[in-house]
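haha ok so turns out i had the wrong file open the whole time. this is the CORRECT one, sorry everyone. sequence first:
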Amino acid sequence: MKNFLIVDFEFTMYTKPVGRPNGLFSEIIEVGAVKLTGEDFVCAGKLQDFVKPHFYPKQAKEAMDFCMITEKDMLKGITFPQMVEKLSALYEKDNTYFVAWGDSDYKVLQRGCERHKLLNPIAFSDYLDLAEAYKLWKHDEKTTGLKKATEEQKVDTAGLWHTAFDDANNTGKLLVAMLKKGWSIEAYLAAKEELAAQCNGL
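then structure:
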């Protein structure tokens, strides 16, 4: 069975109605990751770093405040290419699911790689959107937030919400809880294909 690399990124966003800089895109400012073995869910690696915004550092203040990241924290930060290298070291193509809550994390990683002119080491075929999986598993109409999902499944969460490592760690705990309760990745992928076929048939 594939291993799991559960990842969460905190990244910049522009929320003001006017004044958006030309070409602005979301930049990752914090990464958290936990690698779990596929057989017995043992921790096989961790990653927790602040990431220095390269293109639009002045736009990072709002996101830093929201994520409780200080200027002092950012002085210890690594560069985006260094972060990609560290992620790559925890990932093996076709043998590791890249798990995130929602579709934003893969998108912001891909966009960052494009702007830094780097090859994204994470194959999209290994990407697993656990928020979508949870929605299909529960037959919900709307996507559930991570905090509520962990409460519904009585997951023993730890740390602070909206901090990258703690969110990744709690997402990993929820993933394990779902698997132990009978959730199947194969069933999820089949349901996803069926849903896509229905949408295409409309």
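The first helix runs from residue 61 to 66.
again sry for the mixup
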